[in-house]
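Subject: Glycosyl hydrolase

B.,
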Amino acid sequence: MSSTPLPSSDDFAVCLSRARALPLNEVLALLSGRDYWHTQAVGGARSLCLTDGPHGIRRQLGEHTVSDLSNSAPATCYPTASALAASWNPALIREVGEMLGREGRSHGVDVLLGPGINLKRSPLCGRNFEYFSEDPFLSAELGMAWVSGVQSQGVGASLKHFAANNQEYRRMSIDAVVDERALRELYLSSFEWVVKQAQPWTVMAAYNGLNGRFCCESPWLLTQVLRQDWEYDGLVVSDWGAVSDRAAAFWSGLDLEMPGIEALTAPALREALADGRVSEDDLRRAAARVLQLAARVDQAQADSAEAFDEDAAHELAFRAAVQGSVLLKNDADLLPLLPREGLKVAVIGAFAEQPRYQGAGSSQLVPLRLDTPLEALRQTYGPDQVSYAPGYVRHGDQTDPALLSAAVEIAAQADAVIAFVGLPEEFEVEGIDRRHLGLPASHHALIDELLITHPHLTVVVQGGAPVELPWAERVPAILNAYLGGQAGGKAVAALISGAQTPGGKLAESWAAQLEHWPSSAQFPGGPRTVEYRESLLVGYRYFDRVEAAVPFPFGHGLSYTTFGYSEVQPAEDGRSVTLTVTNTGRRAGAEVVQLYLRRSQDTSAVLRAGQELAAFARLQLEPGQSRQVTLHLPPRAFQHYDLLWGQWRTEAGPWQVRIGASSRDIRAEYGLEVAGEKVPATLPAEYRDPGFPLRVGQAAFTELYGRPLPDNQDYRPGNYTANTPLDAMQTNLLAQGLFAGAIWHQRDLVDDIGASMNAPHNLRQLPLRAMTMNPGLTANPPLARLMAELINGDFPAAAHELGRAIRRSWRKRGQS
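Prediction pasted inline below.
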């Protein structure tokens, strides 16, 4: 094993001493899970419970040898990360983390698997609802708050998914090809700051590959970057089923494999130990980290006394949903729609009665309670003043003429119409990526018809990511409610009625159409790799570089009041700026002041984004109130990562400091001359003058990448492995049979509408090794390799793997 530096903390020294005294079989047992959600109870440490839950505690009930999305204990359902990020409020997110920690303790949870701080490279990623932002600085600030809050209550966080896990397509086999500067400045940056500032007790290594190596088997990622460069002293755990080669993963710096049972992991490590691929001392160091995690949890929980309060949690979920909703448009001040006697309100859309309020997949949970928008609006305006029609079928895409006609008829009789549309679970779910940015056709048809009857229309959008809104210019008011959690319906009613003032800001760009996104030409890639040819030009960094029109830009969000910026005073050293913000309207409200840095490409030898977020502050102001705020620039504000020297450097030259209410609403600007070094020009021409939409050739990307690109040849018969996706082998009858068997086996394990409706598409993308995801049935890596060799037609190799599979199954049976 490439020797990893020992943490210097006293608790680790004690745990290492304990691990060195354990029998080898107990050491190996500590390095694998007992079942799907628990660690082994050996070595003097109790079994720890790890569970899903970035947006709520999903503690599975019943049998734990499989993942059962339909059987979990009821828990508070908070807005998803995309909504929490729109609050731009680290203090609020720390509160959510604290409450998650308290509730987790009440459920016997020791480690909560979150937060997800991967960047939103493409709006099509099926798991974007679980990630904060397209910006690493904002993601880091919010991630630090979440981790600090959860761990303050004695529950560990698991920072995920490390790293460059930006798509669901072939997520267990795809290799993300990213130049190192983009890695360091964007895709690793959020992880770095959360690791250094919040010290999460665990970091989760991702499914995907990164620049030619699986993340779980990358010594560069897990040892050099995480432990050596960042001095991380916690435990590294695999994503569930992410390990392809246990010995290689351990050698690279992965401590705990999940899920699993010791009888299957231990033989692989024993063989590696006998072959000299790992050392016993390194095995004991990894076991010590598991003991250290258990000790940290036990000590922290003994020190944490505050009990969980269900009512307080629901009220917090409500505040989070209010702050995380974004008023995209409000022409002629159509909103707020103030309650008054005799006002007739038509509520249209099945999402009002059966809202989309949480993610689909591993973050799905059973809410303790649920406020629907329809019921909340009836309570707000009076049940006799609110009429309702579904307008479309809740699940599906086809327009129902009868439902549409009834909706139009009700709308024609109303004074105000509120239409609910969005992304059904089958459109947006973990495991697959969205195929397009559109809403269901039935939702678009509903809006088009309602606009004819009632042009003064308010539209509420529910979903976890940007969508195309072809009718946006014709609709006067649009409220993006994201996935608002169990109190999201109450929050929508409060915002529309004016009981609350919108203050959310987009943490991601909403471009007009998919082709405008800089990643669109290389998403999702395949067959083996996906090339991040846009490099640093992600999201608003690209749109602002080429000055492309964006209907709803990064940082955008309207209010029912207005704000003025004045008295901008930069500090002499250029590292901070102070200004005064005044609420110039008639209502109390929140403003998010945003500071961006811009370096013109004409003055720089290295690739530059259009601008980069460097600081922000959320202020709550009463009407007429002014407040002075100071924005501090981060230490690396003017630095870039130099590939040649492998270090951060500052290029001398001019910068612009831009302060505003969004990336496109700049209220103050000034220049700054930054001292530094002269940097040699190494930038390919296609990056110096990027077009719109962005289309970078492979030759230019290879030059930027700085070395030959990893192999992207299609999978070929005779060369299949346990890491080959099933959909690459479907010309083979045995592979077809395996796929059919996987579908049959899945039928009773998934009660998630989005996941179940997409199960065939999802399972087809999984590699053979994904059979190890079920430790109670088929968790036997040699069995996956056996199947690969049978499909290849290599029967001697298949016989060899059969022998290994039988031996491991015998050991597993002996320990059952």
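Residues 1-8, 775-779 have pLDDT under 50 and may be disordered.

T.
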